[in-house]
C-alpha cells in the first residue's frame, strides 16, 4: 500500500476489528456477569466477600496481560503480526467457552474458583498479545498522516464488544425466565463466543502480512531479540516508560471508570436493577462510540497529546460531581414513598429459610424491592435491594454515563496511533504492547476491585458520601499521568519513529 492509498484498508480494518471486538466481548462477559458469577463459583455464605473475590479474579486477568504482551509481542516482531494475533484469538475464545462449562462451587467445591482463575489468566495472556497486533497491523497499512483516523476504528471495537456482550446478556434474560437464567442461562453468553471466534478465525486466516513488516523481513531488518532491543536499549526504554506513565496509565483508569466502574457502581452501590443498568449503559456506549473516530481523526490534525491530556483533565475534575449526581438520581431516601402501596410478603424456601419481600412505590414511578433472607441453618440474615428506576432517571443516568464515555473516547481514540509512532517497525509490537497493557491491565484492570474496596471500607466507617471514595484511585492516577504527559510528551511526535 502506498503512503496515500486507502485501497483495501477497509478489509484490513474489518478483519482486525472483528477479531478484536470478539476478544473484548469475551473479556467483558466476565465483568458484566460478575454479580451472578460471584454466587456460582464462590462460597455463598458471604456475598460481599464472594463479589470481591470475583472482582479480584477478574483483575487477575488484567495483571497477566503485560506478560502476554511480552510473549506475543516478541512472536509478533519475529514471525509476523498475522499469525500471532490469530493464536491469541483462539486462546481467548477457548478460555471463554470453557468458563461457561465449569460446574458450580456447590458441585466441585474449591476446584470451581481455581479453574475460573486459570482460564482468566489464559484470557489475560491472550488479550495481552491481541491489541498490539491489531493496532500495529492497521497502522502499518494506513496512509501517511492518517494513522489516527484509521486506527481509531480499532479503538471502537472494545466498546462495541462490551455493547454486544450486554445485548447478548439482555437477550438471554428476555428469552429465559429469571430462575432459568440464574440456574444455567448465564452460561449462554460464554458459549456464544465460540461461534463468533470461529467466524473471525476464518476471516483472519485469509489476511496478508502487514506491508511494513513484510518489507522489513524481506530486507532482513527484523529483530532477532525484540525484548532486549525494546527494554535493554536505554533510548527505547525511555519511550516505553513515557508511553506508560505519560499516557496509558491515565488512559487505563479513565477507560475502566467510564465503563466498568460505572456499571458496577450502578448495580452494587446504587442497587439499580441489573437489566436496566445493562440497557442504559448500552445506549450510552452506542451514543459515545462514534467519538472514537472523531478524536482519532482530530489527532491527525492537531496532534495526539492535547486531546488525550484534555480527556484526563476533564475526568479528574468532573468524576466526583458526576457520580454524586448519579447516586442522588436514584437515592430512594430523597423520594416520596406512596405508603398505602407498600406491601410485604413472606416465603419459606425448600431449605427452611424465610424470605421477607418488601415492595415500595414512589411518586415518581420508582419501585424498590427489598429481600431479607433469614437462614435457618446459620441463624443469619441477608438483605438485598433492587431499585427499578423511572424513565426520566434512566435518561439522566444515560447522559451521565455518556459524558464519561466521551472522556474515554478522548484518551483512547488517538492512543493506538500515538503508541505505534513512538517505536520502530522491528520492535514495534513488543515495545507498544507492554506500556499499553501495564497501563490498562495493571492500573486500569485493578480499578474495579480497588475502588469497590474503598467504597465498602468508607461505608462501614459511616461516611455519608462513602460512594465517592472509590473515585480517588482513578483521580490520583490520572493526575500523575496528566502532569508527566504535559511535561514530557511532544505533541508533534518529533522524537518518534513515524
Walk me through this protein's architecture.
With 498 residues, this protein is of the alpha+beta class. The chain folds into 2 domains: 9-330 and 389-488, Up-down Bundle (Growth Hormone, Chain: A); 334-388. The protein contains 21 helices and 4 strands. It has helices at residues 9-32, 34-40, 47-63, 65-78, 81-99, 105-108, 111-139, 147-175, 178-183, 188-205, 211-219, 226-231, 234-269, 274-288, 290-302, 305-329, 391-412, 415-420, 428-444, 447-460, 472-488; strands at residues 343-348, 354-361, 367-375, 380-388. A 4-stranded antiparallel β-sheet has the order 1-2-3-4, with no helix packed on it. Helix 3 packs antiparallel against helix 19 (428-444), helix 5 (81-99) packs antiparallel against helix 7 (111-139) and helix 7 packs antiparallel against helix 8. It is globular.
What is the name of the CATH topology of the largest domain? Growth Hormone, Chain: A
Total of helices: 21
Q: Which percent bin holds the helix content?
A: 55-70%
What's the rounded overall pLDDT mean?
Answer: 85
Tell me the strand order in the biggest sheet: 1-2-3-4
Give the beta-strand count: 4
Name of the level-1 CATH class of the largest domain: Mainly Alpha
Low-confidence stretches at least 5 residues in length (pLDDT < 50)? 494-498
Tally the structural domains. 2
Order of SSEs, N→C?
A: HHHHHHHHHHHHHHHHEEEEHHHHH
Provide a brief overview of the structure.
This protein is of the alpha+beta class and 498 residues long.
Amino acid at each position: 500500500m502506498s503512503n496515500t492509498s486507502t485501497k483495501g484498508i477497509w478489509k484490513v480494518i474489518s478483519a482486525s476489528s472483528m477479531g478484536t471486538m470478539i476478544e473484548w466481548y469475551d473479556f467483558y462477559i466476565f465483568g458484566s456477569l460478575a454479580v451472578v458469577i460471584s454466587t456460582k463459583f464462590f462460597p455463598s455464605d458471604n456475598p460481599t466477600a464472594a463479589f470481591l473475590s470475583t472482582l479480584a479474579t477478574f483483575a487477575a486477568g488484567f495483571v497477566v496481560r503485560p506478560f502476554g504482551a511480552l510473549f506475543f509481542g516478541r512472536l509478533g516482531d519475529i514471525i509476523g503480526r498475522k499469525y500471532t494475533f490469530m493464536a491469541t484469538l483462539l486462546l481467548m475464545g477457548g478460555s471463554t467457552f470453557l468458563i461457561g462449562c465449569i460446574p458450580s462451587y456447590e458441585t466441585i467445591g474449591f476446584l470451581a474458583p481455581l479453574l475460573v482463575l486459570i482460564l482468566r489468566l489464559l484470557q489475560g495472556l491472550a488479550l495481552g498479545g491481541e491489541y498490539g497486533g491489531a493496532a500495529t497491523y492497521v497502522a502499518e497499512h494506513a496512509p501517511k498522516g492518517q494513522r489516527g483516523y484509521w486506527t481509531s476504528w480499532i479503538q471502537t471495537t472494545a466498546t462495541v464488544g462490551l455493547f454486544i456482550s450486554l445485548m447478548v446478556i439482555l437477550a438471554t434474560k428476555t428469552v429465559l425466565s429469571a430462575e432459568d437464567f440464574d440456574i444455567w442461562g448465564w452460561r449462554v453468553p460464554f458459549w456464544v463466543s465460540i461461534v463468533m471466534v470461529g467466524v473471525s478465525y476464518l476471516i483472519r486466516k485469509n489476511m496478508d502480512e502487514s506491508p511494513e513488516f513484510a518489507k522489513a523481513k524481506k530486507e532482513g531488518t527484523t529483530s532477532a531479540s525484540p525484548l532486549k532491543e525494546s527494554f535493554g536499549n536505554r533510548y527505547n526504554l525511555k519511550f516505553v516508560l513515557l508511553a506508560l506513565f505519560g499516557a496509558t496509565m491515565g488512559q487505563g483508569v479513565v477507560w475502566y471508570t467510564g465503563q466498568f466502574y460505572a456499571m458496577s457502581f450502578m448495580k452494587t452501590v446504587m442497587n439499580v436493577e441489573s437489566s436496566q443498568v445493562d440497557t442504559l449503559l448500552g445506549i450510552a456506549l452506542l451514543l459515545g462510540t462514534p467519538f472514537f473516530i472523531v478524536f482519532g481523526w482530530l489527532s491527525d490534525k492537531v496532534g495526539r497529546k492535547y486531546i488525550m491530556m484534555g480527556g484526563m483533565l476533564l475526568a479528574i475534575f468532573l468524576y466526583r460531581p458526576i457520580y454524586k449526581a448519579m447516586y442522588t438520581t436514584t437515592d430512594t431516601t430523597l423520594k416520596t414513598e406512596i405508603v398505602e402501596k407498600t406491601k410485604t410478603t413472606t416465603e419459606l424456601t425448600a431449605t427452611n429459610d424465610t424470605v421477607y419481600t418488601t415492595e415500595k412505590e414512589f411518586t415518581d414511578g420508582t419501585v424498590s424491592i427489598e429481600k431479607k433472607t433469614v437462614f435457618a441453618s446459620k441463624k443469619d440474615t441477608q438483605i438485598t435491594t433492587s431499585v427499578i428506576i423511572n424513565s426520566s432517571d434512566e435518561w439522566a443516568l444515560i447522559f451521565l454515563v455518556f459524558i464519561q464515555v466521551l472522556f474515554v473516547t478522548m484518551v483512547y481514540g488517538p492512543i493506538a496511533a500515538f503508541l505505534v509512532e513512538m517505536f520502530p517497525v522491528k520492535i514495534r509490537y513488543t515495545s507498544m504492547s507492554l506500556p499499553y497493557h501495564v497501563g490498562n491491565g495493571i492500573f486500569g484492570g485493578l480499578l474495579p476491585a480497588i475502588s469497590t474496596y474503598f467504597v465498602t471500607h468508607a461505608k462501614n466507617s459511616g461516611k455519608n458520601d462513602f460512594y465517592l471514595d472509590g473515585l480517588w484511585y482513578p483521580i490520583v492516577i490520572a493526575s500523575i499521568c496528566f502532569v508527566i504527559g504535559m511535561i514530557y510528551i511532544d505533541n508533534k511526535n518529533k522524537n518518534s519513529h513515524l
